Amino acid sequence: MTETALILIDVQRGFDEADFWGPRNNPGAEANMKALLDAWQERRLPVVLVHHDSAKPDSPLRPGQAGNDFKPELDGARPDLVFGKQVNSAFLGDVDLDAWLRKRGITSFVVAGIQTNFCCETTARMGGNLGYDVTFALDATFTFDLPEVTADELYRVTAANLANQFATVKSTKDILAGLS
Length: 180
Prior knowledge:
By secondary structure, the protein is of the alpha/beta class. It has helices spanning about 20, 30-40, 95-105, 115-130, 150-160, 170-180; strands at about 5-10, 45-50, 80-85, 110-115, 135-140, 170.
């Protein structure tokens, strides 16, 4: 049986800057990210941490800034792979994620992190297109309002976009129950 990797995307302190990002949804997302991380580490399953290294001068996610650091929920993480990216997909980062997964025989992964409708959704879509069995931990993600669209609306649209096309959308509770 193949191992399922956990890919935690952009779980960074800079996303706590409400003045920069605006209103967010799903205040329980970080607790769910931590629950997934803890379960993966207990079972010694592969964990990948990805961070966004923004090139924008005003971004709190710029390298060298405190906002580029991982959030406290990832303290104590023992990842198998850590790398940065400057675009929305973890498959287009500083490491060839596809090659790394394939070299290890990993054909399935769970996506969680920030933001639901950008980096998490894009990574899930690319993973699905590359033939991976992708599970999207919807309640272990969050996003921010955009003009004319609330974070909750974006959250639901992402779930609809991914379901049955690119990924299986599940709750953290259901994912963890499947690990037992």
